[in-house]
Amino acid sequence: MRRPAPFRLLRSCALLICLFAGGASQAELPLLEAPATLLSPVVVPADGLQEIPAIGYGALAPAPVPLLWRVSGEHGALYLLGSFHFLTPADYPLSEDVARVISGAGEVVFELAPEELHSPTLGLQMMQAGLRSDGSKLDDEIPAQTATQLRAWADANAASLQGAGGGSSLQLFEPWFVSLLVTTTELGRFGLEAKLGMDAQLARQAQAAGTPTAGLESAQQQIELLDGMGRVEQTQMLQEALEQAGAGPESIQALHETWRAGNADALWQEMGLDMRARFPALYARINTERNDAWLPKLEQMLQQPGDILVVVGALHLLGPDGVVEKLAAKGYSVERVCSACAPPDTTLPATPAQVQPETGT
Q1: pLDDT tens across 327-360, in order?
Q2: What average pLDDT does range 39-45 have in this prediction?
Q3: What residues pair up with 82 in beta bridges, in sequence order?
Q4: Which distant-in-sequence residues (6+ apart) come within 8 Å of 252 by Cβ?
Q5: Using CA atoms, how far apart are residues 40 and 27, in angstroms rounded to an integer?
Q6: Per-position DSSP letters for 219-271, written without gaps between them
Q7: How far apart are CA 174 and CA 154, in angstroms?
Q8: Distance (Å, rounded) from C-alpha 53 to C-alpha 149?
């Protein structure tokens, strides 16, 4: 049964869940006279004053139930961990299952390599891609009602936009960039931040431990995916982001809580199926096509000795288009690693035949 409209996943939210680079738009827009001041929100100051949440034992509150699977290889194992790119301090420490896997991993692989995740130029790259290049204004291509809604949103968020020249600076950007800015601002309002996302924190954890890291794709690839969207699709994204901003935090909170509960089936039903039905082209572009491109790389990792941890947005692991079932269908033995889950045995059969969807919890 479809949830009411406020709980439906918006395209801008979907992009931020599936693409780590989208988190760079959470940074304040820079003064156009000095664009190099734009910093990625995942940057931790070199002086180390910002505390990194602990990953391990002894959490005062229940840790998030991990979306974690083990894929058996000939000489080692591949662990697949479903991330949420925007989290809160209350989401740490992570579970003991995650702590054990990252401590034993010989390599940790992310959607983007840590040097790109933490690059102070990531936000600048996104801003440059999102700048209008034909001399027109944003209002020139969006409906009058959308323009009115955007002005109202900018007025309500004048304080956060002040350092970037105020709401008028939004007129210099493409709809996709402004859409992500609106959505990340709203996520931040409710305590969800890219700098606290699982990817950002696990990347720092791996680097601090001296564990080798790598990326499945580049930031430029993710930015080109965003900037390559059609004009109609971009305008609709902006309209939906503004509607979500006026609707309150319920849908975002529900999605975050479902991820925390580790409910793979509910996430697929509420996020994956909805997105595939409403936005099939976007779903294929940001999810299915990228999953298929990753599969040869993941299979190559399975031929290596030792354990490798792969951390990607949760949607990439779920449903019939997710890499979990795609690897199981290729004959690999795949099992859910989840001390808090029941029943304990959620092994997917190693068979070339198409397997049934893994229920998750």
Answers
A1: 999 999 999 999 998 664 445 555 443 333 444 4
A2: 29
A3: 312
A4: 13, 186, 187, 190, 192, 244
A5: 6
A6: HHHHHHHHHTS-HHHHHHHHHHHHHHHHH-SHHHHHHHHHHHTT-HHHHIIII
A7: 16
A8: 37
Sign (positive/negative) of CA torsion 76, 82, 84, 87? negative
Beta bridge partners of 334: 71, 348
Q: Which two tokens mark 249?
A: 């935090």
118 backbone dihedrals φ, ψ, rounded to 5° = -100, 5
Name the amino acid, one letter, at 163.
G
Q: What values do phi and psi take at 107, rounded to 5?
A: -160, 145
Residue whose structure tokens are 């790598």 = 214
Tokens 């992310």 — which residue?
Answer: 110
Q: Is the pLDDT of residue 321 over 90?
A: yes
pLDDT of residue 21: 57
Interatomic CA distance for residues 282 and 289, integer angstroms = 10
Distance CA 98, CA 26 (A): 27
User: For the CA atoms of 267, 268, 273, 275, what is the dihedral angle to 10 degrees?
Assistant: 50
Please identify which residue in the block is written with the tokens 């130029």: 121
Greatest alpha-carbon pair distance for the chain in Å reads: 60
High-pLDDT (> 70) share of the chain, %? 77
- Site of tokens 């974690």: 68
CA distance 243 to 10: 10
Averaged pLDDT for residues 188-215? 90
* Distance (Å, whole) CA 154 – CA 162: 10
Cα–Cα distance for residue pair 168/186, rounded to 1 Å: 19
| Residue 106: CB atoms within 10 Å | 13
Residue matched to tokens 């002040």: 162
DSSP letter for 287, please.
I
Q: Which two tokens stand for residue 52?
A: 């990194």
**CA-to-CA dists, residue 208 to 43, 63, 162, angstroms:** 15, 22, 36
113 half-sphere exposure, CB direction, 13 A CA radius = 11
